[in-house]
Amino acid sequence: MNIFTRWLVNAAGLFVVSKIVPGVKVDDLGTLLVAAAGLGLVNALIRPVLIILTLPINVLSLGVFTLLINGALFYLVSRIVAGFYVGGFTSAFWGALCLSCVSFILNAFIGQKNGAVSRGRPAARRHDAIDVESRDPDKSK
Predict the structure, then answer these.
(1) Domain coordinates of the chain in residue numbers?
(2) pTM for this one?
(3) pLDDT tens digit at each of 141 positions of the chain
(4) Which of 18, 12, 16 is nearest to 84 (CA)?
(5) What φ, ψ does residue 88 adopt, rounded to 5°?
(6) What is the DSSP string of 29-74?
(7) What whole-number distance in Å separates Cα of residue 100 and Cα of residue 40?
């Protein structure tokens, strides 16, 4: 899936989150697209660094601390993008959690619609017993 499609999926997810989660508000479509792009950039650039720096806490909490990181980054983007409002950390936490769920569901539908099928290795060519025996150098003697 290309970046443009992911951006639109995240924008749609953010729209759904703004309707579901109290305390999350987006002014207009332009703000929605900018906030989705901001979330994408923050998740691509800052989130991996934070995950690595907090790895011991993540291991001890069995990954639950990652939810707090996601909420903090969601709140950070709301502070940067004008017109994207998050009431507090609780709203940011639930907003980030809902955005993850909605984006996962939308990505699943988009992936199926585009014909994304498992494209593993092609099946190995089956050799018949006669074909294998005729190539065996020991048997030809």
Answers:
(1) 3-115
(2) 0.75
(3) 588 988 999 999 999 999 999 999 999 999 999 999 999 999 999 999 999 999 999 999 999 999 999 999 999 999 999 999 999 999 999 999 999 999 999 888 887 654 444 455 555 555 555 555 555 556 555
(4) 18
(5) 180, -175
(6) HHHHHHHHHHHHHHHHHTHHHHHHHTHHHHHHTTTTHHHHHHHHHH
(7) 12
